[in-house]
Please model this.
Amino acid sequence: MKNYNRLVTILLALNLVGCGVSQKDKEGFFSFDDNNIKAMYQQNEKVAFTLLNQKNKSIDSIAYFVNDTRVNSVKNNNKFILDLNGKKLGYQNIKALVYFEGDTISIKTRIEVASNIVPKLLKYTIVNTYPHDVDAFTQGFEFFRDTLIESTGQNGKSYIAKIDYKTGKAYKKVAIDQQYFGEGITVINNKIYQLTWQNAEGFIYDANTMKKIKSFTYDKKVEGWGMTNDGKNIYHSDGTEKIWSMNPETQKLEDFVNVYTNDSKIKSINELEWINGKLYGNIWQKDAIAIINPKTGAVEGVLDLAGLRKLTNATPDDFLNGIAYNKKTNTIFVTGKNWNKTFEIKIFN
Model:
């Protein structure tokens, strides 16, 4: 029995030696030097990365990855400089693959990149004021030729309609099934595209007849909020800081930008409009419109429309939502959820 116990002890000891250092212990060998990393950077900055070597291991080299793409490698533990120029706004995932003493370990961190543009505060003047249906929980607002098209939300009350903007009356209306909460719309290639909020489903209609052509499902796990288009691509907000670009032919979400000012991300992007090469976006629960660079997500201007609320019947819960650009007059029509008025405005610096 003693010999048996001694054999077990030897075998266990050999097993422990064979296991070596655990992966968890290895992860404690190195870490990013957080003293040199800020909480947020701007897109015109550079970031210097070095590793803390807690166990004084002999480092051969370090390969650095940004969002899983290898970007550089350094000898030993030399400094790695990451130029943020051209990098997408938002979080950048940084990985260091450390080669040391015949072994390898991966460690990770992330940084947040904001715009380097300070948004301009824009001004406006009211050109005209028109009636708006107080029962319209406005989600989408867009001109098709000379006709204003509006979509509304709330289960059992959602519809799209062609509106006589001078009277605020709908002269053609199409309701959607009561299980859907209607969201944004846009018109491209003589078709109306409509989102729903949390059903992961959208609809396509003939823009002339408003007859439903087909339904489509979202190919990403996102909500449907606002829509607009640049004549080629559709832009789709999802209630976060993201604005997606959608292929109108396949309805696939192909890419996105994150919306940032020079010091913060802008969440809850809602109704959208394409105006002279820029995205204009309502911010949910804010009486303001952000003017966004569609290529980068940088907020280049802000339009404060809080003064309009005072001219309506709006309650604190009736949020500004609805931007429609009239190319013929170069004016913008804005309204809100259940507002009794639509305002035609012009913007200036």
